Amino acid sequence: MSTPTLEKLKQGELDIWRVKTAHAELLVAEQGAQVLSYGRTGEQPLIWLNDHADFKQGKAIRAGVPVCWPWFGNLARNPEPIQRMREATDPATAHGLVRTLKWSLAEPVIEGDKVSLTFTLPEADGQLPGWPHAARLELKIELGDTLTLSLTTLNLGVEPLHLSQALHTYFAVSDVRQVAVEEVAGLEYIETLEDWARRNQNGRLEVTGETDRIYLQTPPRLTIADSEWKRRILIDTQGSASAVIWNPWIERAAALPDMANDGWQRMFCIETANVMADAKVLGPGESHTLAVTISSEAL
After folding, report:
1. N or C, which terminus of the chain has less Cβ within 10 Å?
2. DSSP code per residue over the chain
């Protein structure tokens, strides 16, 4: 068995780590501690690397697995206690404050054919603009037979810490019109495209237009059945009971400068999340880990 290798590269303006094992390859940007792509040797990729993404310092990367923290989406749509955690008067950026910052990487750990990368963000301890709270934020990335991402927040302050968050995963698919998610059948969801109405999912989810839904009380495993690539992506979560499912479809993708006009066909977001009623409250000294393990099997 060959020894895993780690190589530091440049992608545009950003520092990137490429991790190779005997069975898989992973790309990770130090900015945002963001996984950019993941695939197993000889197979189609599991995580989508957007060939139109901007790899610029201080700009969010539309690809891979962005980390959304300490709030998800539009801050004004978050529960009121999360909105109150922010003190700045300027408009809040979508998806929080950490996607465009450079995280600190500890010494990688290699054990056999497994590699672990641990990133921390020192600015989370009271140095994020307009968010004067003390927390330790860590993202652990473990590459072995599967890929596991674990985002851990420790409240270092003396007051409760309210937050929403997500691992905003762009999965690679043959054609989003050929995939289905069966495990959401019967679940309640929020239809954000229709004034945030609450609905119930009738049968499995198939994508037939722009999709932006928040599914509630989700099971610990969701899957993406891809009939053309004859595989099922397995998405196993911990510390999460909500998921955001998103695809921009034709018109929205055409309006995005960092996505090809047909890029919507090749990606499908299922975001492991703590949002809405699943948002977290951490007392002083308490911690929470949001985790996802990604793998696949033949259909």
Report:
1. N
2. -PPPEEEEEEETTEEEEEEE-SSEEEEEETBTTEEEEEEETTS--SB---TT----TTS---SSBPEEBSS-S-GGGS-HHHHHH----SPPPTTBS-TTSBPEEPPPEEETTEEEEEEE-GGGBTTBTTB--BEEEEEEEEESSSEEEEEEEEE-SSS-EEE-EEE--EEE-S-GGGEEE-TTTT-EEEEGGGTTEEEE--SSEE--S-EEEEEES--SEEEEEETTTTEEEEEEEES--EEEEEE-HHHHHHT-TTS-TTGGGGEEEEEEEE-GGG-EEE-TT-EEEEEEEEEEEE-
Give yes or no for residue 38 having a pLDDT over 90.
yes
Whether the per-residue pLDDT at 152 is higher than 70: the answer is: yes
How long is the chain? 299
Q: What percent of the chain has pLDDT over 90?
A: 97
The mean of the pLDDT values for the chain is 96
Residue 1 has pLDDT above 70, yes or no: no
Listed by start position, the domains of the chain span 5-298
What is residue 89's predicted lDDT score, i.e. its pLDDT?
Answer: 85
Over 90: is that where the pLDDT of 123 sits? yes
